[in-house]
Design goal:
66 residues, alpha+beta, three-stranded antiparallel sheet, 1 helix, binds zinc ion
């Protein structure tokens, strides 16, 4: 199984974001923070963008309930 996509949380605002694991860094859509993926824990690993997107939605939904 190829796990090309992952979900990471922004270190500043904690919002989850779907990324390609081949990327070195990403920018948070919510607060604009740029962070390196290797410094963040991969919260979820997915085979495709759709699966990663569903995981992002689920994680962010839980985040908003806190
Ligand atoms: Zn953020």
């Amino acid at each position: 199984m190829l796990e090309e996509y992952g979900v990471v949380a922004c270190p500043r605002c904690q919002m989850a974001r779907g990324v390609r694991l081949s990327q070195r860094s990403t920018t948070c859509a919510r607060c604009g923070a740029t962070f390196e993926l290797r410094k963040r824990k991969i919260l979820y690993r997915a085979r495709d963008a759709r699966e990663a997107g569903a995981a992002v939605a689920e994680i962010n939904r839980r985040l908003m309930q806190r």
